[in-house]
Amino acid sequence: MEQMDQSPLHDAVAAALRRCLTDDEIEQATHLATGAHALIRGHLGQDPPDEASDVVSYVVAQMIARALSRAGDVPAGLASLTATTGPFSLAHGYSTDSQGGGVWLTRQDQIMLRPWRTGVVSVPLTSERYP
Asked: Which top-level group of life is the source organism from (predicted)?
């Protein structure tokens, strides 16, 4: 898969975040792009075709924006946090499909990439009507 030139990548991520990127975020975005492209390639089961480049660029930018906007002090995969003052209780809830702190594909991303996903189809070689 052809990697995006970094300037358009940074512009797309900034557009997804609706703000300019900091110098630290620019470095992180470049690193996260590698993981995003690898995850898309793995999801599709092949390198995306050239006709999918606009969709792939959009999805990569969204994936990086999500990873950058996750609060740094929140543990990866945390779904809920409950704190009670007396008698001192604290509970963390983690989702079953928790992310490890990097990039991830949402259901919406998967739907956008679906036209280029490979799959297996079973076609009968004989007619079911005439065995």
From this structure: Bacteria
